[in-house]
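On clarity, I found the account of how folds are encoded harder to follow than it need be. Since the whole study asks how a given chain folds, the encoding of that fold should be made plain. The format is easy to grasp once an entry is in front of the reader. For illustration, here is how one protein appears when written out as sequence plus structure tokens.
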Amino acid sequence: TKWHKYNGHCYYYSSERQSWFTAELIALEHLFLLLKLRKCREIGGYIIKIDDREENEKIYANRPKNDGYWIGLTDLNEGEFRWSFDQSKATFLPWVSGYGKKGNGYDCVAFNSGSKAEWFDYKCNTTYYYICERNFYRQWVSKVTGFKSQWDDDGWSAAQVKGPPNVYPQYGDIEGAWCPKGESSDNYITIEYSKKTYIQSINIYETYNGGSVWRISFKAPNGTWHTVLEVNRATLSTVTSSRIFSPPIQTVAFPTNEVHIEIDTTNTHEDYEMDAVEITGQC
């Protein structure tokens, strides 16, 4: 599923047409509404909520087809348009002329086709494409759940990787970063984030003698570790400047908030220091 990133959110344009819900019976209406919502939920999102003109123009311009696209706005309570995502009342309403007050039976809202990013309310059992949305998260470590060693339990402890960087962009043997104790081929740190996401990238802030990370794994829902990066340890070499190490990782089809990083300092022969680890997801 291809998601398009914009301003901290991600958007998916369907390739199939769907009705919002069948409008004959109120009970059936709500059933089909839930089924429709589930299509977006199944891929980790919700039917799009549009907050302002800038977002509206951007999403409209990126439509793969010049056709109608359902958005997550309805007036099941006639005349009161609310977003299905959080039931908040819509304040930005760029209606096509003559729409927005079509009355009973015209309870679902879609992007129009044409050249203007405007909306129209229409019969919910009409089939259009639809747009899903989900948030794009950037997270810092919230908890350290395991490690092999640490220089001390204070300024160079494993706990120093929590939160945003303390040392970066400085370079050197500086308190505020985790330093494993001694040269070793099997040092590691296991970290946790507050929210599970579909991790797309990892940024490791190395502030002293970087270059020792050789394997990164994400914890799968069944409890096993899934390797997303592994390099030949013979190729590791010391990096003598602070850096943000952002290796290309394998994308995974499951959300997670647990990461295991393995470090080998036998080739670099130096104290290694890690300041912070940021992940980004969901797109």
